[in-house]
Amino acid sequence: MGFLDQGILIKDLTRLRKHYLCSKLFLWDLVSLLPTDFLYFAFGIETPLVRINRLLRIPRLNEASDRMETRTSYPNTLRITKLMIYIFVLIHWNACLYFAMSNYIGFGDDPWVYPNITDPMFASMRTQYLYCFWFSALIFTTVGDTPVPVREEEYLFMIADMLIAVLVFASIVGNVGNVIMSLRDKDNVFFPNHELVKAYLRSHHVSKELRQRIDNWYQHLYINKKIMREYEILQQLPLHIRTDIAVSVHLPTLSKVTIFQSCEKSLLEELVLKLTPQVFSPGEYVCRKGDVGHEMYIIKEGKLAVVADDGVTEFAVLGAGNFFGEISILNIKGNKSGNRRTANIKSIGHSDLFSLSKEDLTDVLSEFPSAKRHLEEKGRQILIKMGMLDESAEVQEMEAEKVETKVKRLESILENLQTKLPRLMVELESSNRKIRGRVEQLELKVAVVEIQLPHDGQRGEGAPGRDEGVGGEAYWEREEAEGEEEEDADKKGKKKGDNDVDDVTKEGDGESTKSTKDETERVVEGNKFGLKGSVSLKEKISDGETIIVKGDKRPGKGDGAEIEPRNEKEDKSEEGELVERTGKTKGHSDGKDTQDSD
């Protein structure tokens, strides 16, 4: 007895008393327990309604019945009993109302009311109660015919009773249906999908002998109360409670296995959750010689026989607590049997076994590496005693396992590199595109500047640009370094003669024209970066056209400039200017040659 305070069960009497006195249940119970019976003596009241406050105890009665239902081992029986009590009380109250209605109208005044109590046949209290109870039961169960009402009061009473009877009948049907379903669920624990299995066997025309074996198996489950759905039944419980139940039920059996006797308790607690119950019928083989072992077995009840290949000759009999197949699930290296069964084992009668699969054992041992090594060592010792361990094969398998581990590691590394390679290639391609774009922009600026310089009067038509090749760069370095000496060299060049000047001018014109064509061909060809016209700049220069640039003519400011060919009229009008510039260029070249000769 107690109450929950933040999930903690409080049983202290002082706190219990304080909690109860401050709750609404205390007031409810206090009113229901008031001694209203004293009103009979104090005021001479004789009506039974004085004790109506006792009905306030009904909620407490429901609470007590619900607690009993959760604690009893037979909840369905208690549920049916409670339903019958409710129906009996309701019929009893209705019978009392019927007798009171008959008394109000008058006994025997019409066929509907209770007969006249002056008649000795209907005068006794027992007869009166039984007649009224029978009348009320007829109305609520709607089984038989009831007397037809005559007065308005009688009609109203019958209407109310019929409406209540509908609810009562629905409640009876619903509760009885729930109880039946609960009983069927209980049967399904012992007969899991029995009807579906039988329908499947009939539809596939399975032999009568095999169907009889299956029916015997189900009968064994039902008669001996064998539950095959332990996991589904206990799945609703918390994990720690399921573990405690499994330890309580299966740990003594698992502890009998030799290889598990010295294992730590936490490992055994994990293993008991993996045990699966299995039932074998008489004459049924548990395993056959040569089969690959995927699980080990522990005998809980029954007897198994180790038989020869003929199935008749018995070599040994295994009873409760024995086990077999433990070596096959450990996957010990060097096992001559290769994890295959070495004997035929069949059930003599109905046998209950627990099975532990190799996968479940591997999953559990992955969290207990020391226990895994211990179990493998024990299994190896057992194989040595049996003469079933090939040590040379064990070494070879260990070497092969190491190689396989290395291969897997290399495959993992290769997979990671293959994953990274596409990303690196994408990044490299993106970087290359950016670099090519910047180079093309710079080359375009250089080409535009080289085209602008002759029109700015900064150098002759044949002089190389600052950014052109090795010859152009050397030309501009010499021109800037010698400064004032060029003027003197120019004067001396004029005196030297026209032949030398023409040679120098031709040489300069060829170098400048070649360099300009090469740069312009790489950058401007194809009308990129906004150049107008369908004819490339290379073709225009090779055809001898004069190129002018619209836009910013400052050196290095060639972005967005437009390059257009000039027509023949403009070329003729500026022919004189070009000749004059050529003369100046010759003078410069002559001066340089004269200075060099000096």
Structural class: alpha+beta
Strand content: 5-15%
DSSP summary: helix tally: 21
- How many separate structural domains? 3
Unreliable spans: 456-475, 492-517, 519-598
Count of DSSP E strands? 12
Helix content: 55-70%
Average residue-wise pLDDT: 73
Largest sheet properties: 4 strands, antiparallel
User: Which overall shape is indicated by the principal axes computed on the Cα atoms?
Assistant: extended
Q: What is the rounded Rg?
A: 56 Å
First-to-last CA distance: 128 Å
The strands making up the biggest β-sheet line up spatially as 3-10-5-8
Main location: membrane
InterPro entries: CLZ_dom, CNG_cation_channel, cNMP-bd_CS, cNMP-bd_dom, cNMP-bd_dom_sf, Ion_trans_dom, RmlC-like_jellyroll
Keywords: Coiled coil, Ion channel, Ion transport, Ligand-gated ion channel, Membrane, Transmembrane, Transmembrane helix, Transport
Biased composition (Basic and acidic residues): 496-525, 550-572, 578-598
